[in-house]
Amino acid sequence: MKCRHCGHLISLSFLDLGSAPPSNAYLSETGLCGPETWFPLHLLVCENCWLVQTEDHAGREALFTQDYAYFSSYSSTWLAHAQHYVSQMVTRFHLNNHSQVVEVAANDGYLLQYVQEVGIPCYGIEPTASTAKAARTKGINIIEQFFGVKLAAELAQNGQQADLIVANNVLAHVPDINDFVEGFSLLLKPQGVATFEFPHLLRLVQENQFDTVYHEHYSYLSLTTIQHVFSRNGLTLFDVEELPTHGGSLRVYAQVSNSGTNVCTLAVSQLLQAEADAGVDSKEFYQNFQAQAENVKDTLLEFLLDVKRKGLKIGAYGAAAKGNTLLNFAGARPDLLPYVVDKNPAKKGHYMPGSRIPIVDEAHLKAHRPDYILILPWNLRIEIISQMAYVREWGAKFVVAVPVLEFL
Fold it and tell me: Long-range contacts made by residues 168-171, C-beta under 8 angstroms, separation at least 24?
């Protein structure tokens, strides 16, 4: 296999989770009667540019379908994050009613709604029909296509260039990372700025976040690699922030290489040095991660089996993609974990892909009164524990499995 960025042959294995169906391919009742498509889930590392990437198996059209079930607005924590971001960018880059903001992967309008509120012209680019429809109900103009050089050139020619382009949690989701990033250099105005947010590879490794690996994530990114990708595709990195979102993310700032005026901050060199000190650009950094993931799998299975043997009750909360990765790698099925609660109506009444565990509403949990609640989206555990504090009334305990099994 050749690296998706630099084209070098790659063979260094980082993580092999066997095989699984796409993590957002939730099953309907009738879907239980049919087969599921499973793809290998294996990550390799390029020893030239250090891009961590999935093997080529599933195309984007197979993953980001018309009924895509991930809606950003169901997390109050994420909405607050988006609103704060808009406020920051308006102030920092002096955006006003003469500016143009574009979000690539606009999802259900979770962020652009706040851009609209402050009177700044904006539009979104979102290829999945389900989330694009939800965004349009908020009055947001959505272009329902995948983003890349072709679309960016068409929009630029039509006078739709941007002062700010937002790309939250999408850079890892694109199979052709060069085509995607080059599109930003075309769609930005000469003095425009693009920001990208994505989970930080350094945190993934240091905190054993292997369940953030799934087919929709083609790439796992360090700042070291991002600097290479941007430079090759017409962008210059000039700032970076470390964020707590999604277990530890980076927000990177970029400008068009030939015309941007923002001075590179000290934060960039400091984080590049921190990655070098950790060994991100060395083979050894990637060689022990498989054992860490397998230890989590084994510990979780031991816990679930112990709960069953003791006749105790358990349920899970949050039908998240990372939960599907964890459950399918562990081989958990309804006999060990009978249901998952989720408040997203697009998921209720469906079943987790692979494990086929039913997704139910909160009323089911209240009636069932489990002894343990396994939180699958561990990055939202504070929010979830707060909103479900009532379960303490019957003595229920919250549990997370990643990075280690922990009772909360």
Answer: 168/82, 168/103, 168/105, 168/111, 168/196, 168/197, 169/105, 169/197, 169/198, 169/199, 169/246, 169/249, 170/104, 170/105, 170/196, 170/198, 171/196, 171/198, 171/219, 171/221
Between CA 214 and CA 131 the distance in angstroms is 20
* Cis before 403 (ω within 30): yes
DSSP state of 257: T
Q: Give yes or no for a contact between 344 and 71, defined as CB atoms under 8 angstroms apart.
A: yes
Handedness of CA 226, 128, 114, 158 (dihedral sign): positive
Residue 386 maps to which CATH number?
3.40.50.720
pTM: 0.90
Model pLDDT for residues 252-269, shown as the tens digit of each residue: 999 999 888 899 999 999
Strands (E), 169-259: 188-199, 219-220, 235-243, 249-256
Query: Which of 286, 317, 334 is at the close of a domain?
Result: 286
My answer on whether 252 and 397 are in the same domain is no
